[in-house]
Amino acid sequence: MVSYKALLSVKLPFQLDMESAINVLVAQFKTFASKDGSSHTLSKEEFQTLVASQLPNLVKNASDPAVIDNLMSSLDENNDGELTFQEFWQLIGKLASTHGGFSQ
Ligand SMILES: [Ca+2]
Ligand SMILES: [Ca+2]
């Protein structure tokens, strides 16, 4: 398994915009997910901190606990109260679609 520090030390010869964006998403997820014992999943508290600090312009009322509750339950497919990267990723997809004008 690659540690977060090791990941940061890997410098690509040049950074393409889309590859950089993926690196940032993964690194941010890992940073926020590792604040408690389950370092590979986001608890509700970790999810709220991530959304409020990283996505405040795209997620309306990110500081409202009800908004976070609704978002969390819509993303948490197996209802275990934790978001894996795969579960969390759906939010990025939805926000990107809406932001880019791709949603119906
Ligand atoms: Ca965690
Ligand atoms: Ca889950």
Task: Briefly summarize what is shown.
InterPro entries: EF-hand-dom_pair (IPR011992), EF_Hand_1_Ca_BS (IPR018247), EF_hand_dom (IPR002048), S-100_dom (IPR034325), S100_Ca-bd_sub (IPR013787). The chain has 104 residues and is mainly α. The protein has helices at residues 4-9, 17-33, 44-54, 65-75, 85-100.
Which key features would you list for this structure?
single chain; 104 residues; mainly alpha; 5 helices; globular
Would you write up a description of this structure?
With 104 residues, this protein is an all-alpha fold. The chain has a domain of 39 residues. The protein contains five helices and no strands.
Shape: globular
- Helix amount: 55-70%
Helix count equals 5
Radius of gyration: 14 Å
Q: What share of the residues does DSSP label as strand, in percent?
A: under 5%
Distance between the termini: 40 Å
- Helix-and-strand structural type: mainly alpha
Instruction: Sketch the major β-sheet.
Output: none
Order of helices and strands: HHHHH
The count of DSSP E runs of length 2 or more, i.e. the number of strands, is: 0
InterPro entries: EF-hand-dom_pair, EF_Hand_1_Ca_BS, EF_hand_dom, S-100_dom, S100_Ca-bd_sub
Keywords: Calcium, Metal-binding
GO molecular function: calcium ion binding; calcium-dependent protein binding; transition metal ion binding
Domain EF-hand: 63-98
